Amino acid sequence: MNEAIILGFLIFLPATLGFIGCVFPKITFPLSITMLAGYALSSLYALNHDINYAFTLIGEGGIQFSIDRYSFPLIFGSSLTLLIVFGLFSKRFSHYYYQVCLVLLTALLVSFSTVDLISLFIALELLGFTAFLLIADKNDKRALFLSFQYLIGGGLAMLIYLIGVIQAFTFTGTFLIADLGNAPETALCLIIAGLLTKAGVFICGLWVPNVYSHANCQSAAVLSGCVTCAAIAPIERMSVTLAPIGETLSVLGVLSAVIAAIYAVFERDSGRALGWSSVSQLGIAILSPTYGCLYAMQHGICKTLLFSTLHNDIDEAQITKSDGASNKIRNHEETTREIVRVLTFIMASLSIMGFPLLAGFATKAWIKNDLADEAKIIFTTSALLTSTVYARLIFDRVNTLRTNYDLPNYFASLKLSNELKMSISASRSLILIFSIIMLVITSLSQIDLFTSYSIRSAILSAFLGGILFTSVVGIQADQWVKPVTRTLDLVGAPFLVAALLLANLLYFKI
Amino acid sequence: MDLAPEKIQLIPIFILMVIGCFGLLTSKSILRSLFALDVIDTATISIFVLIAASNGTQTPIISENLYSNYADPYPQAIILTAIVIGFATQALLCAIALRLGRVSPMLRYRDLEK
Questions:
Q1: B83–chain A nearest CA distance, Å
Q2: Do B96 and A151 touch (CB under 8 A)?
Q3: Which residue, A7, A18, A246, A291, could crosslink A239 as a Cys pair with Cβ 3.0–4.6 Å?
């Protein structure tokens, strides 16, 4: 009983802090950072020691929670994402930004750990509202319209989900995910279609590239890091207990992984390409129920790093105070910082490509071993396409660095070691360097995965990706790949997916 | 296919839902989408209420005189939450429509999706 109270309190602590933070913003910010660090460390500990908690709030017939191996990686990933964003962008937060992020964390924690469909519904709705606020944070016409599209699409998806839930209830009599086995196929399809929209898997996830490319970089980092992970945990829970749904989901995952990766290859805008690649990676994550959560966690953290370092950040404060004497030093400092950012970008991209010695390598190897043989070739294809995408992104990023900064001069006068130390030890660069080191350490802790075969295939796929990039770069694909912006497409997608799933379950049986 | 009375009860709700979906998919301005979403919301709520009332229609509160046909309180409690959430969604969407209306007063998708 005691355990239930403590864990329930821990789940709702972030929202409480967020609301207190609206009244006392200055005091609550360090507290919330401490809390996030505590969540990250404790979930990491629990992940390594295989701890499970299951408890029921308000006694018999109450709300059931289960914090287990599906929840811990995602809790770790989302608290780390928020930590990175708080550390990097705390100066650029608008009013009530971090409070909204804290409320978002509560919604995430509930959706990761709940095992009944109604709590999941409420958590996802709360998540939708907070994500809406994050998207609308940029406050121009297009951002407002995108947030409108997100909210109306998400609201419709949740209504579809509710209809599925009530149909399942008439057959099973409970709202637990574990009892969905007796539910009819239509109910399962409606529930899954609603969840897939929130997770941003292909067809339902058409909102992802639009939103990621236009939102603020801190919002895009939070959205890619945690919001899309929220529906992953329940989907994995369902696909373990329900065999037919698991098989159908693998079809959708394969479709999503390949088609979205092709879109990403032909996309010219970096933000949209990252969005499409996010769709493709989450498609891979729903392929394997066992390691999907770990994969989503790794992908979320890397995406957060990518979005935070995608654009060079220009501090208005520094520009205004720059005068002639300090101009040179400032340039040096800025260049060093920019180089650190580009390095982080490259490392995170390599991690998503699954390059050896980085965290993505470990999660990719796990998923690859877990997949069925038929799905392996598709997985390899999508890995190759992903390498192509990131080869192009790295190329673009390094190119902007070279054109905007005077690199040869910088390297020639690199001997000013004191200044170098000072600029590296600026807090933002420290966070980025620390996260690179953590990426390396995570993969080194799984040393038994480093077989010569897997290392060879990973390096080979990276090289092939580079070669493919150079062959694809000349193709003018603007006529074929048009951004999907019509509201009708975004709203109609869940219906289409529900119909497809139903057809597959009843007739095709792939 | 046999039509039980419970299924016949569901037919008007199904029609309502089709109307709402049709409206949402063919709407040309933001306000119409809002109305269509509200129609779908109402249809969902009615499904919940009907299914809760399938065993009986008496209010499920224990009082001095007991009845034999109580409604199922479980879906009713849940749909209360869903009604509140639906209302919140509508309020947020209206706020956004108000802001967008300053830029393009007709609120047509054609103008906004450029």
A1: 11
A2: yes
A3: A246
As a whole number of angstroms, the distance between CA A507 and CA B11 comes to 25
Residue ranges for chain A with pLDDT beneath 50:
315-329
The sign of the torsion formed by the CA atoms of A24, A27, A32, A35 equals: negative
Q: Can you give the pLDDT at residue A124?
A: 92
pLDDT tier for residue B39 given thresholds of 50, 70 and 90:
very high
How many angstroms separate the Cα of A330 from the Cα of each of A313, A398, B68? 14, 21, 81
Structure confidence at residue A263 (pLDDT): 83
Contact criterion met (CB < 8 Å) for B37 and A486: no
So what's the pLDDT on residue A412? Answer: 67
For tokens 């392929």, name the residue: A287
Q: Spell out which residues of chain A touch residue B81, defining contact as CB-CB under 8 Å.
A: 118, 122
B78 interaction partners in chain A (CB closer than 8 Å): 118, 175
pLDDT of residue A322: 46
Sign of CA dihedral A416, A417, A420, A425: negative
The residue extents of the domains of chain A are 135-314+327-508
Q: Which amino acid is at A145?
A: F
Dig out the tokens for A504 from the structure: 């597959």
According to the model, what pLDDT value does residue A319 have? 45
**CATH for B5-59+71-112, among 1.10.287.3510, 3.40.50.12280, 1.10.150.130, 3.90.550.10?**
1.10.287.3510
| Minimum distance, in Å, between the CA of residue A148 and any CA atom of chain B | 7
Instruction: Report how far residue A117's alpha carbon sits from residue A112's, in angstroms, rounded to the nearest whole number.
Output: 12
CB A132 within 8 A of CB A149: no
Secondary element (H or E) of residue A55: strand A53-57
Which token pair is A258?
């390949």
Q: Is B82 on the interface with A (CB under 8 A)?
A: yes
- Going from N- to C-terminal start, the domains of chain B cover 5-59+71-112
Give B-chain residues touching A156 at CB under 8 angstroms: 24, 37, 40
Is B13 in CB contact (< 8 Å) with chain A? no
pLDDT given at position A56: 84
Distances from the Cα of B47 to the Cαs of A125, A179, A470, B14, in angstroms?
20, 21, 56, 9
The answer to whether B20 faces chain A, any CB pair under 8 Å, is: no
CB contact under 8 A, A166 and B48: yes
Residues B45-92: tens digit of each pLDDT: 998 888 888 877 787 787 777 777 888 888 888 888 889 999 999 999
Strands A53-57, A63-67: pairing is: antiparallel
Specify the pLDDT at position A126. Answer: 92
